[in-house]
Amino acid sequence: MTKFKACFFVPFYPLIKGGAEYQSKIIAQELAKKGYEIVFISGGHEKEKVSFYDGFKVYELVIDTAIKARFFLYKDFMCRVHKIIKDEAPILIYQRILNTFTFHLSKFAKQQQIPFILHIADNYSVEFSKKLRSSLKRYLFRKILETSPSIICQTDYQISKINEWGYEPMAKIPNMHPEIIDERIERNIKRILWIGNAREVKQLELFLQLPALLKNDKYQFHVIGKLPDNQYGKGLLEKIKSCQNLTYHGSKENTFINSFLQTTGVLVNTSVSEGFSNTFIQAWMCGTPVVALNSDPDGLMTHHNLGIDCQGNFDLLPKAISNIIGNKDFLIQSNKIKQSAICLFSTEVNVFKLIELIKKIKSSNG
């Protein structure tokens, strides 16, 4: 195919870590293999510079978070972004996270007649309460839709929320992951794992109740992730220290996480809600079932027997964990989970969907 340049407006992984950042990096790597040139515009750094990482040109930008900057919706920052885009002259702009920056970026893309793909990364972005403080969020989203972006969703739920605005997303592409090499590590099905950056919405404190509730079952509990540097994080650390039979590993790279998942019996997710968690896919790619408190994206977990959704009932968590670990056919089911994950979430399958969408956008724009 003819090589062309796209600007990815998203923090660059692993300089800045997060689920959306990781997904964008995966997509960029796959597109690069197909002959695309990807330039990253990455906000959130301590110093501004242009760098080259993993074959990508990365504009590392500082974001002023002062009250004045927030009041004007980061207009000065976005002016710098717009200049970079003009200098790079891409034929496509891709943003993974719907946020305040999208308001300026979508408007600029329309003015410059550059196709703009907005890839929804979580449910919160498309959920709007009727409270007064949500009025700005609703106003900005309405203005973004007026610029006619090409919207990609992760799930049918996200599509339905955007449909409520009378707008039709162009595609549904779930999170994806490269196939994980089977390291043939011995699996300890009594090992129970929680992964995440422990923000309040992740509700790690609920997971920390499980060692006491399941203390008679000889389970081994593990937590991987960063604790916030605030009172909430300090409280979590104290609870972790008081837990028996629990190991806290701190923040770890994906290579460690993938290896660890292959030795684990179940991944537990206690978040208030999830869009489409990367950790779910990583677990399934490793043949590890998931027990979630509040999430079953598109019903895939139930339909493909990938785990159990407790539908918000914390009392069901211990029983769900015991049911999965006590399954006499656990290893057979584990292999089925891995094969299903490869079919559903491989990068090859899902980047192909994105390439087809890009072709459609290009043809409609001449």
Automatic annotation (TrEMBL):
InterPro entries assigned: Glyco_trans_4-like_N (IPR028098)
Domain of life: Bacteria
Residue ranges annotated for the Glycosyltransferase subfamily 4-like N-terminal domain, each copy included: 27-155
Pfam family, one: Glyco_trans_4_2
PANTHER family, sorted: GLYCOSYLTRANSFERASE
Protein name: Glycosyltransferase involved in cell wall bisynthesis
